[in-house]
Design brief:
13-stranded parallel sheet, 23% strand, 410 residues, 3-stranded parallel sheet, 11 helices, alpha/beta
Length: 410
Amino acid sequence: MANLEHIPRANNSTKRKHQEPNINNNNKKKKIWPTHYEKQELITADQYSDEEDRLTNLPEPMKLHILSLLSLKQAIQTSALSKSWVSSWTSIPVLTLNSGFFFTCSLCDFDKIVTKVLACRDKSVKLNKLTFSRGGISTIKILKTVFSYALSNGVKQVRALIKGSRNGSWPDCLHNTSSDSLTRLKLISCSEIRCQFLGHRLALFKNLTNLYLENAIIMDDPDAFSGFLALEKLTLYHCCYKDDNLNIRASQLSVLNIMCFYNSFDRCELSTPKLRIFKFRARTFPVLVTPPQALPVLDEVVLDYQGSENRKQSFQEMITMFSTCHNAKSLTISMYAVLLLSRFWKELVKHCSPFRGLKFLKLDEDGFGKIPSDVKDYLLQYSVDAIISVVYIEGMFGKNFLRNIFEFSF
């Protein structure tokens, strides 16, 4: 048996070193070792503290940029992050009021939210863009609240999308309130709506350069657009034209987009000496009436005919429109326009091409390669060096929508 006396024994100091704290010793202070979960909580709390400091110390421009990427509801919720974020959402330069983001609220409650948000906004900070989107039939009160705020606070861009107006009109403040800051105005309604601010002879929006109207009722008034002294781009999308006439008198207008797939008009009078781009899509062609030597700087013409290729009246209307747009350097025509010209080829050969300096002829993919020689010879009679290219088609209204041609963007 081994002699236990030769085994070295640990001294008292070594023994105490490896022993757990004596919890029964009342004379010594009790030590409590943190558990694994308590350590995790401590680390998490430190992380939250660091993140809060980072959020608090963000530069104000970066805060506003982040908030401008969020929906209004999300932007308001950031006020709970820290004290420095409490009122940051009231200074964002881009404000979107969309009832779709408040789907749990009724439209009546949404109107109250809009009114309160506009009242709480910091008016010392310029609002660059205001978007108002609402389902249901909008009341006169809420429309007046939104547009009055935009016009009186120097908003540069206003975009409104509604299902309809209770009185069938955009608010009165649009034709009795002026704004020198407004540069872009986009008004979209799912139903026909009156635009009483059109035809106003006073220059209420003298710096407005871009106007987009959808389902607007446009009266036969030669001064419908003359009040917009700086207007450069005009888009009319499915508008209703009273008396089947459209008058456009705008000295600075350079881009004109007209799409009237459902509502057509017979006569269009243009007094636009600086017009460079003209895009037209319809089932029939109106008679274009212009002053002598009109459209001197016209560069690009897009004609997307969507009617029947057996309609001789449309053939005559297209030939007349070609004559009015004879200064164009680039011509884009749809497949149905090519079919219409080829259908009446015997009449076509009797006409001389009005295009003297055509440089580009663009056809859709179905028309390209199948274009009859009579149509090609007519269009390029005096432009033999013109470059022929293809425009691909994508269906918004079936296969015949010209992609990348009709860009009704704001």
